[in-house]
């Protein structure tokens, strides 16, 4: 009999208020596991330390195995990551921030787990994308996440116009993210590329004490003070009118 792969959400940034974003059950399940797959072992240990402050871990930290899965992990290595579960051991897939397998390299591991008939159990926790949709005031009945837009300025502007056109035609909210140090350039591109009436939301540091969420038209953003979002995780949303 195989083990279960638990999909364990992480906080969306540095916080000591773990109970505000992760249910007790999630913390208890996490504390009972001694095998994890994570994008970065160091940050996963920091997360487990937070959990351990609320619920004693099943083993000392140095005895808990953390295997890494990131963009550099070859597909051929995924079976090895699942080997403990195929042997009957439960394991946890932990995200760097938010929920696993959404804007996260864990999706391939989850798909492979299904192929091996390993039970997959998603646990409740914060998702910056859903929190942004909830708080934006834009269309929550139809929305699409587009990941990162091109870094080349001309290609980025072209992509923004394509998403705006799709949004206007389908009345669909478009979401995307940016490397935090390029947030200002992204907002400038949105303001320059979008029609004046297109609604643009900038949602930063969601669920953290420094959280800010603002929705305005592209025309209003032109004269508004810039958000305090330099080097801070931010979700951008637009809805063409």
UniProtKB/TrEMBL annotation:
InterPro entries according to UniProt: 4pyrrol_Mease, 4pyrrol_Methylase_sf, 4pyrrole_Mease_sub1, 4pyrrole_Mease_sub2, rRNA_ssu_MeTfrase_I
Keywords: Cytoplasm, Methyltransferase, rRNA processing, S-adenosyl-L-methionine, Transferase
Pfam family, one: TP_methylase
Domain Tetrapyrrole methylase, chain residue ranges per copy: 26-218
GO biological process, one term: rRNA processing
Lineage: superkingdom: Bacteria
Molecular-function GO term, any one: methyltransferase activity
Keyword S-adenosyl-L-methionine: yes
Protein name: SAM-dependent methyltransferase
Organism field: Duganella radicis
Lineage of the species this protein comes from: Bacteria, Pseudomonadati, Pseudomonadota, Betaproteobacteria, Burkholderiales
């Amino acid at each position: 009999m195989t083990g279960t792969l638990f999909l364990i959400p992480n906080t969306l940034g540095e916080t000591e208020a773990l109970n505000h974003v992760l249910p007790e059950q999630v913390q208890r399940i996490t504390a009972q596991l001694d095998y994890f797959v994570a994008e970065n072992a160091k940050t996963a240990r920091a997360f487990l330390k937070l959990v351990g402050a609320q619920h004693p871990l099943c083993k000392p930290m140095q005895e808990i195995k953390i295997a890494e899965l990131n963009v550099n992990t070859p597909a051929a290595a995924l079976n090895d990551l699942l080997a403990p579960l195929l042997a009957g051991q439960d394991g946890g897939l932990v995200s760097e921030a938010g929920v696993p397998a959404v804007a996260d390299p864990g999706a391939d591991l989850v798909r492979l787990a299904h192929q091996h008939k390993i039970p997959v159990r998603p646990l409740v926790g914060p998702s910056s994308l859903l929190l942004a949709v909830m708080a934006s005031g834009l269309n929550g009945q139809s929305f699409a996440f587009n990941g990162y837009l091109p870094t080349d300025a001309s290609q980025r502007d072209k992509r923004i116009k394509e998403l705006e056109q799709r949004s206007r035609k389908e009345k669909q909210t478009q979401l995307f993210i940016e490397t935090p140090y390029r947030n200002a350039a992204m907002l400038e591109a949105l303001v320059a590329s979008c029609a004046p009436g297109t609604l643009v939301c900038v949602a930063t540091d969601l669920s953290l004490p420094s959280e800010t969420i603002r929705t305005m038209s592209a025309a209003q953003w032109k004269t508004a003070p810039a958000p305090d979002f330099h080097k801070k995780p931010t979700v951008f949303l637009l809805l063409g009118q």
